[in-house]
Design goal:
Elements (H helix, E strand, L loop, with lengths): L5 E3 L8 E2 L2 E7 L5 E7 L7 E5 L11 E3 L16 E7 L5 E7 L7 E5 L2 E5 L7 H14 L1
């Protein structure tokens, strides 16, 4: 059994987590870049900039990139401001994980074995859209 959840890129499958943190490269709408660390606990929204001078702005959408392959992790849908990862939890269960890319918006969704779990004070914001995605996932994957 793992000590921490493990997160990896949906493009290159490289590990994004180190111990209890997940590392991303992020970009602001003014094209400023920084490295960002998030808590590996999916119900904890602790984050910090570890490199760069970017000042995050409340309610602003940021682009998240894999620091290994540099592919964008944000969903392309304009009505869902979510970032996609894969996760293996401490028990070895695998999930698709989505979280809001908007600073200060606390919404996380985990799809595992055709079930949906959601976390955060703003999780109802995208719940209808993520349920439609889950239904598509069940039908075609």
């Amino acid at each position: 059994m793992e000590k921490y959840n493990i997160f990896y890129c949906p493009h290159c499958f490289g590990y994004l987590s180190i111990a209890d943190r997940i590392i991303f490269k992020i970009k602001s709408k003014t094209n400023e870049y920084a490295l960002l660390m998030l808590s590996a606990d999916i119900a904890d929204y602790d984050s910090s900039i570890i490199s760069g001078t970017l000042k995050r702005v409340e309610k602003e959408l940021y682009e998240f990139y894999c620091p290994l392959c540099s592919k964008c992790l944000n969903l392309e849908s304009s009505d869902m401001k979510l970032v996609k990862l894969f996760m293996k939890d401490k028990k070895g269960n695998k999930s698709e994980l989505y979280f809001s890319g908007v600073y200060g918006e606390y919404a996380t969704y985990a799809i595992r074995d055709y079930s949906l779990e959601y976390f955060g004070t703003h999780s109802k914001r995208y719940l209808e859209q993520i349920q439609k995605y889950k239904e598509f996932y069940e039908r075609y994957l």
